[in-house]
Specification:
It is built from ten helices and 13 strands. It has about 325 residues and is an alpha/beta fold.
Length: about 325
């Protein structure tokens, strides 16, 4: 009898261990440089190593929750706010992702953490330095290629997501999100981004006779990218873009704005100008100016917006804080 009880107890322990460790993907999976790294308790983490042969020099990390609920791939271009070399930044991302992402975790989304360069030119990699020769040239294409490999990996494991990523971030992350959507609108389902330094890139060639060259707009888009802007895909993207009225971080691309003929003396007026232009040509956009917010993300609004706009219909939300809201014109 005593021996039987010990045997049953052993079996229970083994079954429990198998149950706790199981997800829809295998731990030992290795495919095209995608390898299992560790288990966080909330899900499994896979590393997508840099693969120049497949078109990307960036590293990224894929987090697959135990209980996936969201139907789109969530892409997070993590930015630390400090300058350090690429290896140090990758180490920081590995640490941060163990604590999760406040938006992706609530959505229970499969999340791709991008490890992007953190040098003094970081926010310009998808802007003025898009075509700069070297390791990070056309960083947008590198991101695109990595995402495509992730989709292939997930499909090989029997995980099928809906077409189109959601991409979200704040401050420099937010600018990366919007610029990527501008460069590859065919890949994007929704964008939730903020702290945009008082203006957003818009799919227009001019505002009030002021030429909008990249990265202000698309006046020279084909010259910069090598292809025409895909407005048909752009107009289907759902956007939630915000700025805090009390934000004191300054204006991005101030020199470019002045060269184009815009005054940068009045931040609110600059936001109103570009937000209105964005609303005019982006039917599924919600542009929010929070009246009592500085440089801080309002994550609960991103979560609600991305939940409400998981499907094909555009559904604006009511911001959780006092705000001036502009909606895209149909």
């Amino acid at each position: 009898m005593k021996k039987t009880l010990i045997t049953l107890f052993t079996v229970i322990i083994v079954l429990t261990a198998v149950s706790c460790a199981s997800t829809s993907v295998s731990e030992d999976k290795s495919q095209d440089g995608i390898t299992y790294e560790f288990y966080t308790g909330a899900g499994k983490v896979y590393k997508i190593s840099a693969n120049a042969g497949r078109g990307y020099n960036i590293v990224s990390y894929l987090v697959i929750p135990n209980d996936v609920k969201y139907s789109h791939l969530y892409v997070y271009p993590y930015k630390s706010g400090s300058r350090h070399d690429y290896a140090a930044h990758e180490k920081e991302v590995r640490t941060k992702l163990k604590n999760g992402n406040p938006v992706a975790d609530k959505l229970k989304a499969i999340t791709l953490w991008l490890v992007l360069p953190q040098d003094e030119a970081e926010y310009m990699r998808l802007g003025t330095l898009l075509n700069e020769p070297g390791k990070w040239k056309r960083l947008d294409n590198q991101i695109k290629n990595a995402i495509e490999d992730v989709y292939s990996f997930l499909e090989s494991e029997g995980i099928t997501l809906k077409d189109g990523i959601v991409i979200s971030g704040y401050s420099g992350e937010g600018s990366t999100c919007v610029n990527f959507a501008m460069l590859h609108p065919e890949m994007v389902h929704a964008v939730a981004a903020g702290g945009l330094a008082w203006h957003v890139i818009v799919p227009m060639e001019q505002i009030d006779s002021h030429d909008l060259n990249w990265p202000l707009g698309i006046n020279n888009y084909k010259q910069v990218t090598g292809y025409s802007f895909d407005y048909e895909s752009w107009k289907n993207i759902k956007f939630y873009l915000d700025q805090g009225l009390l934000d004191d971080r300054g204006i991005k691309y101030g020199g470019r704005l002045e060269q184009a003929g815009f005054s940068i003396d009045n931040e609110r007026r600059l936001w109103d100008t570009f937000a209105s232009a964005m609303a005019e040509c982006t039917p599924n956009a919600e542009l929010v100016l929070y009246k009592k917010v500085g440089h801080a993300p309002v994550h609960e609004d991103y979560i609600r917006f991305l939940k409400e706009n998981e499907g094909e219909e555009f559904k604006p939300i009511t911001p959780s804080k006092e705000a001036v809201v502009l909606l895209g014109e149909k």
